[in-house]
Amino acid sequence: MAGGFVETGEENKQYNGRLTKFVALSCIIAGFGGVLFGYDIGVSGGVTSMAPFLTKFFPDVFRRMKEDKNISNYCKFDDQRLTLFTSSLYIAGLVACWVASWVTRVYGRKCSILIGGASFVIGTVLGAAAQNLAMLLIGRALLGVGIGFTNQSVPLYLSEMAPAKYRGGINNCFQLSTNLGVLFASLINFGSQKIFGTYSWRGSLGIAAFPALIFTIGSIFLPDTPNSLIQRGKDINNAKMVLQKVRGTVDVLEELDDLIKASSASKTTSKSYFKILERRYRPQLVMAIAIPFFQQVTGINVVAFYAPLLFITIGLKTSAALLSSAVISGIATIFTIISMHIVDKFGRRKLFILGGIQMFISQMIIGGVMANKLGDHTALMTKSYAYFVLVFICVYVCGYSWSWGPLAWLVPSEIFPLEIRSAGQTIVVSVGMFFTIIIAQAFLTMLCHFKAGIFFFFGGWVFVMTVFVYFFLPETCGIPIEKMVKVWREHWFWKRFVGDVEIEDTEELRTP
Prior knowledge:
Helices cover 76% and strands 0% of the residues. By secondary structure, the protein is an all-alpha fold.
């Protein structure tokens, strides 16, 4: 099959060890970073649909929504300051993730997680207490710093702590916790919008302080990963003891030896951002850019950021729109759990491809119904058509939640050799943040101009990325991280880059 690889005994070798309670507890604490990430994604769409929030910070939008009968149904929420409330989170995250890369490499994964947690706490307090738009945006920016640090470090932490045969399921905990955060935000929004006055949106923004405190305090007690300890030149015996503890066995010499070899290779250069540009790392570089780009142009953030506004646009009331958003978040969580159970059994490629097909079909149906049933100035959709669209949005979210949602975090976190791992993860997060900013800032304007065609736009990209995965992404399921280079050497396309370099390196070693 195109994009596959030939299995050999070496690359599918499994180290000794098991999934220990210590690893599970560490990953739960680290996973709170995903909860906070998801909460900050989900809460913005809810509070921007609340009348007290709009009247305080965006009165022009509220007036158009309630009074302007001449404006298109698709254009009622088109306001660049309103979208800046959402996108400011990711502008700050984009800058922060580059700083986080250096911190993660020099001071370890744990240090980045701790800084991210502290930023979440401060940003949450500022946002909930905001008295003006500037204070609100500063709070959002600090939350973005938290996202930049945790998105850079948590997926790496999960992948490096997990045994290879459980890595897919454990790493998917990040997406699961993100979905739980979105679900939590949706339920809080639904409940708080019934509260009188500013306490509605202040409650929605401020309640995130509780998981932020748990995450920050818990991260103090996290161990750093054996990979990071070795990479930073710490005592090998200390790394060995940590590895024995996380694997639940004293027989870890084989894995420890591979970690030491990988660390030695990573120290051949300190310029990992230049090293990743080398020919031998071409497949990893392409995936570091392509996968987060494709994840964003699935259109998922249309639902994640603006679901309540979208549902109001098609004819649902504010309360029903917030409840519908909560239902979708719950469905996303369920299907992410399903993905955790099947990703290490069926592999990454199959889920990517099948999820892409499901998303493409549902987006074509949504776009078709909206094009026929929702005009510019005509009455909004009838409830039956509005709920029909809602059903297929659920189908679309299901497809995303067991494929591109978790896998776009999992695959990049497991394909980079140690010498480029921090740089590679930074590129992944940066590309994702960059296109998240563009979509978050531009979506309401795109909806105003593209109208129902916005779903055909995103559906076209889903088709392209599904074809890309079929031809260019090899299967990485069950391969130890330090042996991952094997899959590229066996791939029909990428072997021309990695294979040639392997031969050149061998010849250099033979030269006296």
